[in-house]
Amino acid sequence: MSRDPSSFVRGTIHKKEKVDSSFRWNDEKRFGYRPDSMPRRCSFKLELDFPQPLAGVDEAGCAPLAGPVVAAACILDRNKFPRGIDDSKNVPLEKREKLYAKLVKCSAWGVGVASVEEIDQINIYWARMLAMSRAVEALGLEPAWVLVDGNACPKWQRPSKAIVDGDAKCRSIAAASIIAKVTRDRIMADYAREYPGYGWEKNRGYGTPEHWRALHALGPTPLHRRSFPKVRAAIDGISQTELVFEEIEPGESFESHTPAVESVEAAETQHLVVQPHAAA
């Protein structure tokens, strides 16, 4: 039986698409962004149905072990904006910095920050929402509509819509993602000088092997998110007092052996030494 040539062509194309997709995924994992050769999806297309001024909103820093979560809101002039705006994760560092420098000059923008204390008090989800609300308020003008990256909007009264993967689809959200990312990276670089050894100038507070090793070796800082289970577990492991067992010589009475803690006062003193380290 002869084989339909067209079916072979379709099968070959399908296999090639799978291979290309795997290469793109490997590139993204290896470099931390998608190379410029990849096709761009980011545009104003999804924004045209909404009134202006339209603000795009995105955040940076939900996943890290340490540091604040930072959000940005951005209103672009559709007739005058820098080329190359895309999801900040798709843009290499040097280009991201250049885009940031242009965006803060040609757009209306605002930044909102939720602190580590707020993250631990209300959890990272609501801290993210709080940072986004503060970013829109920092614009200095009320947008006619707000497009938010993700699957939910903050609990505000302004007209808005959440768009999943919005930072890769909507140019205004992508612009906000760049402003938020660069702002937070600079914050973490400043903190790295205050708390050296954790590698925050490079890992930005994310859970890299270097960061985990430093957390165990140096202990936690006030900027570590204690509400994160893995961080809490690491801190608890560091804080546990080790038990020391001494061998009793033959014939020595157990009762006459000097106890590890001689009094209640000594126990309290021991507690006070450990406690500041655990709460640092």
Helices and strands in order:
Blueprint: H1 5-31, E1 54-60, E2 69-75, H2 93-106, E3 108-114, H3 116-137, E4 145-149, E5 160-163, H4 171-194, H5 200-203, H6 209-218, H7 229-239, H8 264-278
Helix pairs in contact: 2-4, 7-8
Characterization of the model:
The chain is α/β, with parallel strands linked by helices and 280 residues long. It folds into 2 domains: 150 residues, Ribonuclease H-like superfamily/Ribonuclease H (Nucleotidyltransferase, domain 5); 64 residues, no CATH class. Helix content is 45%, strand content 11%. A 5-stranded mixed beta sheet has the order 3-2-1-4-5. The N terminus and C terminus are likely disordered.
Strands in their spatial order, largest beta sheet: 3-2-1-4-5
Proper CATH architecture of the largest domain = 2-Layer Sandwich
Distance from N terminus to C terminus (CA atoms, Å) equals: 76 Å
Q: What is the number of strand segments?
A: 5
Number of helices: 8
Element-level helix/strand string: HEEHEHEEHHHHH
- Helix-strand category: alpha/beta
Oligomer: single chain
Strand percentage: 5-15%
Radius of gyration: 26 Å
